Amino acid sequence: MQSSITYEQLYQYFSGHSSSFQKKQIEEWAKDEKNLEMFYHALANWEKNNLQYYADPLVAIGRHQERMARTLPEETEYLAYPESARRRFPVRWLTAASVALFLLAAGWMYQSILKYKTFATEYGQTLSLSLPDGSQVTLNANSTLKIPRFGFDNESRTVFLEGEAQFQVTHTPQDKRFIVKTPTSLDVIVLGTNFTVLARSRATRVALNSGKVQLLSHLKDRRSEEKFMEPGQVATLDPEGHIDIKRIATIEDLSAWKDHRFVFSATPLSEIALMLDEVFGVKVIIPEQQVAQMTVSGSFTAHSAEELIQTLSEASTLTYQKEKRKIILQSKVN
Known about the structure:
The protein is of the alpha+beta class. It contains 9 helices and 18 strands. The chain has helices at residues 7-14, 20-30, 36-49, 57-71, 75-79, 83-115, 269-280, 289-292, 305-314; strands at residues 116-120, 127-130, 136-139, 144-148, 156-168, 177-181, 186-190, 194-199, 204-210, 213-218, 224-229, 233-237, 243-247, 261-268, 283-285, 295-301, 318-323, 326-331.
């Protein structure tokens, strides 16, 4: 079977002019993930130059009136329908509306796949990657980063983060801004700098190692709040989306996860349990309230949730029991 496909062959495939043999060739070729970028790029170019629908309002109205006159019953006939039939009639409209909403959602998802390339990590995994502009990114476990599939635009370099990542952003001759968008409506805007972003359900945080960062939070009442950070500062969001900035002495500890280190400073075990669920996908259950409120300080190296829990247990009066993807942490029984 042919090992490579040309753009011309893809354009013929999209336009429906390929033979059955050619269609099979392309479909087999497209199953290889290495070919998807070329496939989507060709599809984007083809759709740009071959609009699928040209609207003519007058023709559309005329056809609609014809169809209505040909298919709709007289009003008196409609009123003569049994009551049960009239009650069922709206269901057809609800079904049609549901289908329309499904198609709209599917179209949005398709456009997202077409426009963006996604990098993702599994539980317990980190990933280092280089962006097209030369910037370096390290993704923490259970995180995703979406970047434009066909390169950054002329005005900005925008990426979408869900999870946690450290960025080493390169400065461009055109002073093009680098923007990290998060699910919590916080935009991190820089020109060239080193910073870490946490964007998870339990917290949103930005730690600045070097350079300068502009934060833009889109508040729930449709207002925006803007603040600037300096090196050594950490910014967090409160539940309303307001930005709080403070300075800490050891800013590098917030990206220690790159080396499989976990640094705690009077951190409650309940918060550590949430972190382990995010990073390793392991539920840590702490039945006793006094144990959940115990705090931990220090730096620990661990490659799994059990390894960290074991280390903490050995240095305290705690014991644990592992059950598949669950760890029960409690006091030792005398």
